[in-house]
Specification:
Oligomer: single chain
Order of helices and strands: HHEEEHEEEEHEEEEEEH
Number of strands: 13
Protein name: DNA primase
Radius of gyration: 21 Å
Length: about 200
């Protein structure tokens, strides 16, 4: 009979374990589940390793969990920002947000009302098809897209497109993060300089 091994550490599962046991201990079971969660997290490491995270309310008001009490956060005050792991552990508010700071060249292109019944509208499809491979996620509303990458904008810009708009920011703003990738968007960031130049 083949000896079963723990799926996390590889140690033999002794006779005291049930025949359908997968792990040798509670510690290995929890470590394995944490590992799966980390692997499944689509947010690029270029974002998660930066301490520029906040929570937000259902009305998109940014919240700070940096101190002992939850309080309003500011997109221009680093003292109100936290690490990714800390905001993920917090239950405050309704979700996560990332603060854009000019120092790291991270940029977000917000395509408002880009999706109609789950399908890209033609103007948004043209933008998305011209992108290098970069992280894109569906916005909180379910009708917009947030395109993340590297670039420089300076003063944020908003371009109207009928009943829709394209916004581009690289500083002084926080953007909600849903962790819901659009289609097969990769968990990495690309240089969006040319795309931004074309848009603006």
């Amino acid at each position: 009979m083949k000896t079963k091994r723990c799926e996390h550490c590889g140690d033999h599962l002794g006779a005291r374990h049930a025949h359908n046991a997968r792990f040798c201990s509670g510690r290995c079971r929890m470590a394995a589940h944490r590992s799966v969660r980390r692997q499944a997290d689509p947010v690029p490491s270029a974002m998660t390793r930066r301490p520029q995270w906040v929570r937000h309310t259902s009305r998109k008001v940014p919240l700070s969990v940096a101190g002992p009490k939850v309080r309003p956060a500011s997109s221009t005050d680093p003292e109100t920002w936290s690490s990714y792991s800390k905001v993920c552990r917090s239950a405050a508010g309704a979700g996560l947000g990332f603060v854009l700071s000019w120092a790291d060249r991270l940029v977000c292109i917000d395509l408002d009302h880009a999706l109609l019944d789950g399908e890209l509208r033609p103007w948004a499809r043209r933008i998305v098809e011209g992108l290098p491979e970069t992280y894109i996620e569906v916005s909180l509303s379910g009708t917009g897209l947030h395109i993340w990458g590297f670039g420089s904008v300076g003063r944020g810009r908003r371009i109207r497109r009928g009943d829709s708009s394209v916004e581009v920011y690289d500083r002084g703003r926080y953007i909600t993060v849903t962790r819901q990738p659009f289609e097969d968007a990769p968990s990495r960031l690309a240089d969006l300089t040319q795309v931004i130049d074309d848009l603006l």
